[in-house]
Design goal:
The radius of gyration is 21 Å and the shape is globular. The relative contact order is 0.16. It starts with about 25 loop residues before the first helix and ends in a 6-residue tail after the last helix. It is built from 17 helices and no strands. It folds into 2 domains: about 180 residues, MFS general substrate transporter like domains (Growth Hormone, Chain: A, Up-down Bundle), CATH 1.20.1250; about 190 residues, MFS general substrate transporter like domains (Growth Hormone, Chain: A). Helix 1 runs antiparallel to helix 7, helix 7 runs antiparallel to helix 8 and helix 8 packs antiparallel against helix 13. Helix content is about 75%, strand content about 0%. With about 425 residues, it is mostly helical.
Length: about 425
């Protein structure tokens, strides 16, 4: 792998000024909405899955395939959409993605059978394109200090949508039936499309757009040690979250209490993500590698405390969820820095890098969670769960340390005003 002398932002510092004059930035609201919409669909109809199965007289496991299919197409969409946005521009990719999403949502609402429903559910994953487009638009319309702040705000929407989505979907299902959920998604998509057509301007200059072969672009990124370190840090951080989501259900049986109470404590992790995203904006003066090290250290320290408490026999609910909140805080800190890092490897391939890194993070996180699941078969095995969480978080910390090491040779030239081309 190369040492990435072609990196466009010397030293990868969040305080640097971009070489190119930023395009007028769109309002934060539209970027937050695009980011939130990219993760809302798969969460909002979860409470309605049993009723959907009853309507179509289908096995629940078959209906549940819509989630797996959505996740797969989501990852593929990230890869393709990122590269297309580099070649054809950010605005058309976002508008087409939202348009397909609207049609797919209407198709779900009107589906006459389970086959048609699953097809349109998978088509809804086209909205994932808006995730990488929003990140790249932020990168291209702001200096690196402002970009960290704006990505942090966008990340808040990315965290809030999964928190509120299931509750909103459950209310719609109970009041009007499950089809109302998809009608609401179509209306929301139409509103965002209208706002995007007015607010979202093209940020990729015609001269800077990638004209190379798609596979050559992927090869260039995958040969970059910087791209790998940031992506692996995100993948292991995502894996830590996935382990928690999969293992928490086994652990909570030890605490008792109502499902509403446990649901409240489960919300501590996304609340931590929002807090971490806010803190990330305050650390804008730090290098990307340093920010990642701080983020991953905070997660490891919190999980180490949880492991010690669990081994000591402390079984209070806060002794479990309190340390797990640092998963959210660490990931909220990691998100802006790591994404800025991958998009800074090659300025002309920012969209490709964002999409490829997102897909690799999802796949890597799922793989890590699957491996951890082999050790989490016993209900109430809280020490084992914390050990798995700490292992994944430690791998993310190792990647963050390597990212800081790679950045080190660039810091002094950046500070003295000389750059690396």
């Amino acid at each position: 792998m190369t040492r990435d002398n072609s990196v466009q932002t010397p030293g990868n510092r969040l305080t640097e000024k971009t070489v190119m004059t930023p395009t007028a930035a769109p309002r934060r609201t539209i970027l937050l909405l695009l980011t939130a919409l990219s993760v809302l669909p798969v969460n909002i109809y979860l409470p309605a899955l049993p009723n959907i199965a009853i309507t179509f007289q289908a096995d629940f496991a078959l209906v549940n395939l819509s989630i797996a299919g959505y996740a797969i197409i989501n990852a593929v969409t990230e890869i393709i959409a990122g590269a297309m946005s580099d070649r054809y521009g950010r605005r058309p990719v976002a508008l087409i993605a939202v348009s397909i999403f609207i049609v797919a949502s209407i198709g779900c609402a009107l589906a006459p059978n389970i086959g048609v429903f699953l097809l349109f559910c998978v088509m809804q994953a086209s909205i994932a394109a808006c995730f990488c487009v929003a990140l790249v638009v932020i990168k291209e319309t702001a200096g690196d200090r402002q970009a960290a702040n704006r990505i942090g705000h966008a990340a808040m929407g990315w965290a809030i949508a999964p928190m509120l989505g299931p509750s909103f979907g459950g209310v719609l299902d109970e009041a009007f039936g499950w089809r109302a959920i998809f009608v609401a998604l179509a209306l929301l998509g139409a509103a965002i499309l209208a706002i995007s057509m007015r607010e979202l301007k093209e940020t990729a200059g015609h001269a800077s757009r990638s004209r190379g072969n798609y596979f050559a672009s992927y090869r260039q990124l995958l040969s970059s040690s910087r791209f790998w370190t940031y992506t692996l840090c995100m993948a292991c951080s995502t894996g830590t979250l996935y382990i928690f989501l999969g293992g928490a259900s086994l652990a909570v049986g030890s605490f008792g209490g109502s499902s509403a109470k446990l649901g409240f404590f489960m919300g501590m992790v996304p609340a931590g993500f929002i807090l971490g995203s806010y803190i990330a904006a305050r650390l804008a003066g730090k290098s990307l590698g340093t920010t990642l090290v701080i983020a991953r250290l905070s997660t490891c320290m919190g999980l180490l405390l949880g492991l010690i408490l669990s081994i000591s026999g402390v079984t209070h609910v806060l002794a479990f969820f309190g340390p797990c909140m640092f998963i959210g805080i660490g990931n909220g800190l990691t998100f802006p820095a790591a994404n800025l890092g991958v998009m800074s490897v090659r300025a002309d391939l920012a969209g490709t890098a964002a999409g490829l890194a997102a897909a690799m993070s999802i796949a890597g996180g799922a793989l890590i969670a699957s491996i951890a699941g082999l050790f989490l078969r016993e209900a109430g095995a809280i020490p084992t769960l914390f050990a798995m969480l700490l292992t994944s978080a430690s791998l993310a910390l190792s990647a963050a340390l390597f990212a800081a090491f790679i950045d080190a040779p660039h810091r002094e030239p950046a500070e003295s005003g000389s750059g690396i081309n």
